[in-house]
Amino acid sequence: VVSVSPKIVDYAIDNAQRAFESGVWSRAPAIYRSKVLSKLARILEERVPELAKIETLQTGRTIREMNAQLGRLPEWISDYFAALLRIQQGLVTPTQDNCKKIYPFSTSVAMSYLGLQPFNHPLLIAVKKIAPALAAGNSIIMKPSELAPISVLEFSEMAEAAGVPPDVLTVLPGLGPTIGKAIVSHVHIRKIDITAPILVFEDTDVSCAVNGIAFASFVASGQTCVSGTRILVQDAIYDEFLSALEVKVKSITSRMGDPMNPYSTMGPIISMHHLERIEYMVSETTGSIVCGGQRMSGLSPLDGFDYSKGAFYAPTIVENISSSDVLWQEEVFGPVIVIRRFKGYGLQMFREPIEWLQRSGLACVG
């Protein structure tokens, strides 16, 4: 994939703004935009198997993950955003406390909309940004990760085939420090969309918690914005929990293989450069490595896949780290769990976890 130039960035964004101001899409009847989005959903649905393979080849994530993930995208477009445009009267949506009412509606803004994407969920995150913006009548500029741009480029061609007018959806591949910077600094870009510890208490179902945390921590090889990599466990069940988690992690490791194998549990890291970053961070930890802690080599016990063909890093658990540890202070963005125990009962049991959260430079997600 060839990177665009800053000159092309200016040209593309100016065209997107002109398309918006022309009203060819922004002032098109809602029912027309709904029909186009519905057609786009049908085209996407037909190509899900092909796109899942593309996602696996460009990210290393397992084919079973991608089949499940991409299979829902046509529904998002047709069953929500296209359907929403067919609603003539505002639908009153109740909230849980029945104190407020939500009136869903879509409207365009007098500007181009920019979506910046990571490499971990290329098409999923693209659709989450593109579908609502198209429904609202906006012009959209997408800057996919330079490591995984192909599926997003394919989607833009599908949108054109479905009837989205020229220059309404534009994909600009390139490096973040150059092309990304040129895009976000453009005068017409006024809206940008860019995309923690888990507490385990003594009354939890340990088996259920272990399964949930393993999924949250190792899906996409830990390369997600909301990866559950820092775990705080109440003292009374800490040993039991850690033992069960170690068994689970070793099971995941033993079933890693060819990402195209539907029985493979976890794929490689996105690049050798990122693998080396993870290796360095783990090597700098002051904690104790319970399992993993190294890149994988040799042949997979699952299917004989040669780990040297990819940037495979073993699912890792690290315990007893300090609050100043690099693994606590920085996002690993990889298959590494750090785990600590906390004590206390009643309201006091929240004191220590909160103090640990405050010592971290990262926000709480899970």
UniProtKB/TrEMBL annotation:
Keywords: NAD
Gene3D superfamilies: Aldehyde Dehydrogenase, Chain A, domain 1, Aldehyde Dehydrogenase, Chain A, domain 2
InterPro entries noted in UniProt: Ald_DH/histidinol_DH, Ald_DH_C, Ald_DH_N, Aldehyde_DH_dom
Domain of life, per lineage: Eukaryota
Record flagged with keyword NAD: yes
One GO molecular-function entry: oxidoreductase activity, acting on the aldehyde or oxo group of donors, NAD or NADP as acceptor
Domain Aldehyde dehydrogenase: start-end pairs: 6-195, 196-343
Homology family: Belongs to the aldehyde dehydrogenase family.
Protein name, as recorded: Aldehyde dehydrogenase domain-containing protein
Organism: Sphagnurus paluster
Lineage of the organism: Eukaryota, Fungi, Dikarya, Basidiomycota, Agaricomycotina
